[in-house]
Design brief:
Two copies of one chain form a homodimer.
Chain A: E1 2-6, H1 13-23, E2 30-35, E3 41-42, E4 49-51, E5 54-55, E6 64-67, H2 73-77, H3 80-89, E7 95-99, H4 103-108, E8 116-117, E9 133-134, E10 139-142, E11 145-148, H5 153-166, H6 168-177, H7 196-206
Parallel strand pairs in A: 1-2, 1-6, 2-5, 6-7, 7-11, 8-9
Antiparallel strand pairs in A: 3-4, 10-11
Helix pairs in contact in A: 1-5, 5-6
C-alpha cells in the first residue's frame, strides 16, 4: 500500500511527521514524501528541512494521502500544484486525509464539499466558507475522507486510521512502539481548557 | 538561545520533530539541526529524509541539546561523532536532553553517570549497564540533564522543559498552538496498559 505524505513550503513539521511515525510502520507500507519538485522544503520554523522522494507527477495513484497544515488557511487553499494533485488522485484513494489546516487544501480541491470535517481550532469557522460542515472533534471520518484537528491531532488521526486499515492489534502495536501514553504537563491543549487570555492571544497569531 | 537538534543515520523521526515542534516556537530560539556532515539523513523508516543545517563542528556551544533515539540502544551508544560532540558541548549547555534511546548516546558520553534517567520502555533495563539509574517515568529531570521515555514522550519532555525555560504561560501557549489535547483511540501506549501479547512482541522487535 502506497501512503503519500504531502509537503509544501512552510508546512508544520509535526503535522506530517506524527502521522508518518504511525502509518509508515504499518505492514507492507510504501511511504513516500511528495511535493511539487524534489527540492528541499523548509517547515514553518525554517530550520527544519525535508527532502521529498517524489514529485506530485511521479505519484499518480497513492492508496492513502496525508496533507499537513501550516500557517494561513487561505494560503494553504491556494497551493495550486497540491490542490490540483489532490483533485487528480482523490478518486482513486482508499483514504484522503489531512491534519490541521491541511483541510483547506482538501476543501479547495472540492473534496470536503458537503462533508463533515475538522481543522485547527483557531481556523475552524473558516471551513464553512468552502461548503464544509465544521465538526468540533479531534478526528472526523466522513466516508473515505479523514480530517484531524490541530498539529498533534495527526497522531490520533493516524492511529485511528491504522486501526481501520489493519485492525486494532496492529494499531495498538504501533502505539506501544511509539510509547504513546501522553502525559502533558499542562491542560492547555484545547480552547476549552486553556486560560482564556492564552486562547485569545493564540487565536490572533494562528487563526489567520 | 541556540537549541541544537541532533541527527544521525536511522534516527526516529518523531523523537526529534516532537521536541522541535515545541521548543522551536519558544521566544528568540535559534533552532539548528546538527549532524556529522551536511549530507541528508534518512530516518529509521527510510522514506523520511532531513537536511542538517550545521555539522557538529559548526555547533560548538549550544544552549540546549536534544538527542533523538533510534533502533538499537547499543548502536546509538556507538555513534562516535555524536558521542564525542556531546562530551565537548555538555559542560556548556543549560540543558542536555534525550528522547527514547537517545539516552544511550548521553550514557556513552558519560553524561548519565550516577544520574536518574529514562528511555524507551523496552530498553529500560539496559541503562543500568552504563552506571545510570533507570527511572520508570515519562520525563526525568536530574540537574540539567533531562530524559524522555519512548518516541512520543519527547513532546511531554519538551513542554515540561519549555515551562522551566520560559515559564508556564509560554509553554501553555505552545501546547495550545499545537492543539496538544491527546485522545489516543486505544490505551495501549504503555506496557502497563497494552495487551500482554502485544507487549511481548514489541519487546522482541524494539528492545534490541
Amino acid at each position: 500500500m502506497q501512503i503519500a505524505f504531502a509537503l509544501y513550503p512552510a508546512f508544520t513539521a509535526l503535522d506530517i511527521v506524527g502521522p508518518f511515525n504511525v502509518l509508515a510502520y504499518g505492514p507492507d507500507v510504501d511511504a513516500v514524501f511528495v511535493a511539487e519538485s524534489l527540492e528541499p522544503l523548509s517547515a514553518d520554523v525554517g530550520a527544519l528541512r525535508m527532502l521529498p522522494g517524489a514529485t506530485f507527477e511521479q505519484c499518480p495513484a497513492p492508496d492513502v494521502v496525508v496533507v499537513p497544515g501550516g500557517p494561513g488557511s487561505r494560503r494553504i487553499a491556494e497551493l495550486g500544484s497540491l490542490v490540483e494533485w489532490l483533485r487528480r488522485v482523490h478518486p482513486g484513494t482508499q483514504y484522503t486525509t489531512s491534519v490541521c489546516t491541511g483541510a483547506f487544501a482538501l476543501a479547495a480541491a472540492g473534496i470536503l464539499d458537503g462533508r463533515r470535517a475538522t481543522t485547527h481550532w483557531a481556523s475552524h469557522d473558516r471551513l464553512a466558507d468552502y461548503g464544509t460542515i465544521p465538526v468540533d472533534e479531534r478526528v472526523v471520518f466522513d466516508g473515505k475522507v479523514v480530517t484531524g484537528a490541530g498539529v498533534s491531532a495527526g497522531i490520533d488521526m493516524a492511529l485511528t486510521l491504522a486501526g481501520v486499515l489493519w485492525g486494532d492489534e496492529v494499531a495498538q502495536s504501533i502505539q506501544l512502539g511509539n510509547e504513546y501514553d501522553p502525559q502533558p504537563p499542562y491542560s492547555a491543549g484545547s480552547p476549552r481548557t486553556a486560560p482564556p487570555h492564552i486562547v485569545h492571544s493564540i487565536r490572533q497569531v494562528v487563526g489567520a
